[in-house]
Amino acid sequence: MAQEDTFKKIVSHCKEYGFVFPSSDIYDGLAAVYDYGQNGVELKNNIKQYWWQSMVLLHNNIVGIDSSIFMHPTIWKASGHVDAFNDPLIDNRDSKKRYRADVLIEDQLGKYEEKMDKEIAKAAKKFGDSFDAAQFRATNPRVLEYQRKYNELHTRFANAMEASNFEELKQIILDEGIVDPISGTKNWTDVRQFNLMFSTEMGASADSSSKIYLRPETAQGIFVNFLNVQKTGRMKLPFGIAQIGKAFRNEIVARQFVFRMREFEQMEMQFFCQPGTEMEWFNYWKQYRLAWHQALGMGNDNYRYHDHEKLAHYANAATDIEFHMPFGFKEVEGIHSRTNFDLSQHEKFSGRQIKYFDPERNENYTPYVVETSIGVDRMFLSIMCHSYTEEQLENGSSRVVLRLPEPLAPTKCAVLPLVNKDGLPEKAQEIVDDLKFHFNTHYGDPKDSIGKRYRRQDAVGTPFCVTVDHDTPKDHKVTLRYRDTMKQERVDIDALRGIMEERVSISSLLKKLNVKE
Ligand code: ATP
Which of 36, 91, 180, 460 could covalently link to 40 via disulfide, CB atoms 3.0 to 4.6 Å apart? Predict the structure, then answer.
């Protein structure tokens, strides 16, 4: 199945099974804004819990905060967002659609990569076991030609972005023959800057001094609380402040479902350290964050680092963690070494001293910062894309199963009475009433056949089903069915909790992270 079709199916599965709905659905939706449904919110909460606990519980020197969305407007002047939080925008005159010029060019780079991968895959199939991919890549004339084109475009693009040279960005689009995917034409306007912050007015007066912004990232709420937390928590460097919250960006092109939204949620952590130690911490966080992703068991090959060559003027290192989505490898998280830029800027703009007194060195200085920043919604999407599976079964039928990492599944266990009589519903309810204190357990009404009810649980990713049948009241046993293997076994009711609890707990993931302090 083409990747595009798979993605479409995932989007409609999300709606059909109560994971994600378009916002304002009965009014035909609002572009790039989505609501999470009854299953989506559980999965999202589990992602957040996993992140929070891995940061705040596992690290003695990390604490959390919850800062407000509205902040003093000068904060965004200090952070550089008012002047520089822009994307290069380009319109196609025929389709009247708007695009990000940099994304059009990145997609073109992705096409060269795809072409190289295709040649390699074709050759691998032809030559079988004896195939040496590295050698083929280094010598095959067609691959080398694609690589040359890729490198040339990449350098030209990086230089244009670095110099904010919009004419050159447009020229690249024309030279590469990039066409609008809708109109199929090259009738492009010039490239212009577009600021991504939403603004609104605060209070009754509408003069310009009351203009405030909806935060485009949660990080600034952490920087402006640095002293509050450091002093009241008596924090010693190095230490981190973590936060989960909404962020807003007026994205030019909002495509790809919850990948690029105008209202989204971030999980960010700013790690404050001594100047000179930031590269050590940058490497620590780079590895730790990848391990966090990999602990979910979604295939280590589906992740890669993308080190930034073009760094923001204040950064001295930056990398993205990318996940293999159906539309290519895409950023889900950024790890940035931001030097002392933000704290120094806030010191300058607020007129307050924002320094750390180091008792060991007996001096004041501005700490350096390493940040980890991940989008909850992109993480959600990567999990949905990886988990959605269509299976052909041996008996000729098929099923759709969401192979969600068990600790993140919205419902961990569904208890299903075989029929709606003979005391079976009561027995099933008893089991739910016991298990619900330990993990999310759902009672499954016996309206449909047991087979249908299993399929429904498969489709929402429930790892375990427990069936109560006519023997249960006699032998105190139930049938336990496993989502992924569909294996069924008869187990004692008292054994249920023990079998499931460890597998579905967030702590089973945390234990894989092996943090030593
Ligand atoms: P992109 O280049 O894709 O626009 P970015 O580099 O601007 O992303 P950051 O500013 O580093 O993203 O934000 C950190 C994280 O927040 C991203 O890795 C992503 O997971 C998430 N994020 C950013 N913008 C959006 C958005 N519009 N919708 C959903 N998640 C987002």
Answer: 36
- Sign for the CA dihedral angle at 488, 489, 493, 498 comes to negative
Question: Rounded to an integer, what distance in angstroms lies between the CA atom of residue 348 and that of residue 354?
Answer: 9
Ligand 1 proximity of 34 Cβ (cutoff 6 Å): no
DSSP 3-state assignment of 239? strand
CB 377 less than 6 A from any atom of ligand 1: yes
Half-sphere exposure at residue 229, Cβ-oriented, CA atoms within 13 angstroms: 23
**Residue burial 199-220, b: 16+ Cβ < 10 Å; e: rest:** eeeeeeeeeeeeebbbbbbbbb
What would the pLDDT profile of 226-273 be if each residue is shown by its tens digit? Answer: 999 999 999 999 999 999 999 999 998 777 899 999 999 999 999 999
Q: With 70 as the cut, is the pLDDT of residue 469 above it?
A: yes
Going by CA atoms, what residue is nearest to atom 19 of ligand 1?
Answer: 375
Choosing from 266, 338, 370, 371 the residue with most ligand 1 atoms within 8 A of its CB, the one to mutate for a pocket test is 266
**Token reading at 218:** 């949660």
Confidence class of residue 84 from pLDDT cuts 50, 70 and 90?
confident
* Confidence tier at 209 by pLDDT (50, 70, 90): low
More confident residue, 269 or 447: 269
Residue with tokens 């963690």: 321
**Ligand 1 atom at minimum distance from 249 CA:** 27
Output the residue whose Cα is nearest ligand 1's atom 1: 331
Eight-state DSSP code of residue 418: S
| Ligand 1 within 6 A of CB of 338 | no
pTM for the structure as a whole: 0.88
